[in-house]
């Protein structure tokens, strides 16, 4: 029999999931008053096995949040990961329909991307067209992100001189209201003045090119929507994990679940890391509620007192920074929905005492918000949005050399976050990188899968991690 409290937790999570799935409208949190975060002195982590990341200069008081050291572990050696093989499976996007009158279809021999341009435009170079009234140029994308929507948001927010203060972002996924991260994304030049600012389309790179995961098609705004409707390509994608037998998405039978799981314990100064190998990824994985039942009650009971010691702070609770109340609100660009696509254009407004000091333009997909954390780190406000970390108004992912930064929080009043670099997922705590690496840490999901995202409180964090083909349940905390 399962612990009654754990069962009630699963039921509550299921109710939340059903509510999220009942609508394809964005969920906007209310502005609630929460406890003031504690300011701390932070230095950020670098792994000693890699070049040090660049520190970021932010407004006074300044602090270096980028990595500077690797925290030694007192119990086991550093984890290394074997590279994974890529697949040649193909996925098509778009159709090669006839071009509009006065336009012609062009296909890039370098990238295999097909799109239309006005017939009067001249080709100025490889994948570069220019006309009297516009231009189009296809090139590699130079920025962070593991999904197109992350790259799209970084580009729109890091180059306001190109797209203006209010660009419209649209996912060009035509069929599915949730799984849109791999589809092209349109940045339409500022909604207030489309003549002054340019536009762009972010795309997956169909070629096996280790120099860039994505491509960017730069355009004048007047022609951007017509070109966006015409984009077509075939993409080589890795296969989805294949689960064997009838175990996946099913309630495991009692004989499948042991009474306990072996634990690997590591100590990093005040931190204790406990990893429980749950099941081979070919059999099952997190993302459906039945997976909770693969975690024996004895495992969850060990740290229950720390997990339940306090309630987790309300979603995006206001924080005090420098004597000012910092809040974040999600606001839709209601006037922008010209393309028949999925994912509405939104922005997050960061405000100090009610006055906006920063705006993060973003995509909002059904049932989920890209915003995950608002905090005060050493007198600087910190916002996590779609695995991008914004520190006092600057997105730091590229400067620090990370494709993603997620799971940000204060643990024992010290900054903790996860990051993805060179295909590995690691954690940084109090300015140092923990010498433990994973192939994946489950995060950033909505609806039912979202209940397996990284979670935590001021004493500990718990998450689901993949290493060497095995899913682990992991707890990391300060218990003394």
Write the layout of secondary structure elements.
Blueprint: H1 4-21, E1 69-70, E2 89-93, E3 103-107, E4 114-118, E5 122-125, E6 128-131, E7 134-140, H2 148-158, H3 160-163, E8 168-171, E9 185-188, E10 198-204, E11 214-220, H4 221-230, E12 233-237, E13 263-268, E14 271-280, H5 297-302, H6 304-307, E15 319-321, E16 324-332, E17 344-352, E18 355-364, E19 371-377, E20 380-385, E21 388-391, E22 394-395, H7 397-400, E23 404-411, E24 414-421, E25 424-429, E26 432-433, E27 440-441, E28 455-456, E29 460-467, E30 470-477
Parallel strand pairs: 1-26
Antiparallel strand pairs: 2-12, 3-4, 5-6, 6-7, 7-11, 8-9, 9-10, 10-11, 13-14, 14-30, 15-16, 16-17, 17-18, 19-20, 20-21, 21-22, 23-24, 24-25, 25-26, 27-29, 28-29, 29-30
Describe the overall structure:
With 480 residues, this protein is mainly β. It folds into 2 domains: 4-26 and 41-83 and 249-315 and 381-477, no CATH class; 90-237, 3-Layer(aba) Sandwich (Protein Transport Mog1p, Chain A), CATH 3.40.1000. 12% of the residues lie in helices and 35% in strands. It has helices at 4-21, 148-158, 160-163, 221-230, 297-302, 304-307, 397-400; strands at 69-70, 89-93, 103-107, 114-118, 122-125, 128-131, 134-140, 168-171, 185-188, 198-204, 214-220, 233-237, 263-268, 271-280, 319-321, 324-332, 344-352, 355-364, 371-377, 380-385, 388-391, 394-395, 404-411, 414-421, 424-429, 432-433, 440-441, 455-456, 460-467, 470-477. Strands 5-6-7-11-10-9-8 form a 7-stranded antiparallel sheet, sandwiched between helices. The longest helix is centred in the N-terminal third of the chain and has 18 residues, at 4-21. The protein is globular, with a radius of gyration of 23 Å.
């Amino acid at each position: 029999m399962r612990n009654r409290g754990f069962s009630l937790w699963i039921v509550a999570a299921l109710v939340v999931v059903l509510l999220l799935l009942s609508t394809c409208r964005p969920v906007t949190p209310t502005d609630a008053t929460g406890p003031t975060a504690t300011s701390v002195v932070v230095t950020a982590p670098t792994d000693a096995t890699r070049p040090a990341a660049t520190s970021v200069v932010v407004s006074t008081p300044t602090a270096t949040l980028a990595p500077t050291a690797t925290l030694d572990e007192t119990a086991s050696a550093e984890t290394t990961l074997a590279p994974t093989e890529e697949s040649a499976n193909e996925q098509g996007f778009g159709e090669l329909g006839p071009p509009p009158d006065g336009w012609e279809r062009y296909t890039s021999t370098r990238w295999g991307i097909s799109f239309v341009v006005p017939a009067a435009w001249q080709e100025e170079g490889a994948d570069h067209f220019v006309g009297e009234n516009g231009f189009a140029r296809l090139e590699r994308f130079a920025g962070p992100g593991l999904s197109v929507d992350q790259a799209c948001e970084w580009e729109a927010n890091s180059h306001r001189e190109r797209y203006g203060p209010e660009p419209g972002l649209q996912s060009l996924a035509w069929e599915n209201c949730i799984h849109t991260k791999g589809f092209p994304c349109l940045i339409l030049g500022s909604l207030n003045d489309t003549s002054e600012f340019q536009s762009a389309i972010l795309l997956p790179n169909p070629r096996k090119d280790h120099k860039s995961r994505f491509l960017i098609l730069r355009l004048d705004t007047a022609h951007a929507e017509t070109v966006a409707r015409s984009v077509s390509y075939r993409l080589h994608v890795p296969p989805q994990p294949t689960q064997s037998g009838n175990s996946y998405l099913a309630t495991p039978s009692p004989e499948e679940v042991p009474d306990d799981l072996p634990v690997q314990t590591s100590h990093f100064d005040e931190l204790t890391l406990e990893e429980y190998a749950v099941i081979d990824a070919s059999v099952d994985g997190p993302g459906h509620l039945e997976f909770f039942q693969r975690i024996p009650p004895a495992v969850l009971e060990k740290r229950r007192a720390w997990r339940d010691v306090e309630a987790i702070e309300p979603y995006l609770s206001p924080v005090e920074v420098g004597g000012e109340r910092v809040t974040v609100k999600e606001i839709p660009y209601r006037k922008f929905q010209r393309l028949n696509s999925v994912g509405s254009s939104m922005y997050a407004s960061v405000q100090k005492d009610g006055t906006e000091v920063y705006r993060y333009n973003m995509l909002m997909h059904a049932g989920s918000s890209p915003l995950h954390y608002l905090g005060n780190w050493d007198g600087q406000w910190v916002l996590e949005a779609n695995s991008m970390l914004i520190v006092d108004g600057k997105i730091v992912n590229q400067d620090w050399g990370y494709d993603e930064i997620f799971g940000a929080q204060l643990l024992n009043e010290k900054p903790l976050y996860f990051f993805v670099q060179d295909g590995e997922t690691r954690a940084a705590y109090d300015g140092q990188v923990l010498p433990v690496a994973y192939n994946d840490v489950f995060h950033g999901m909505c609806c039912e899968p979202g209940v397996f995202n990284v979670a935590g409180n001021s004493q500990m964090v718990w998450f689901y991690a993949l290493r060497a083909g095995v899913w682990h349940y992991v707890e990391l905390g300060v218990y003394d």
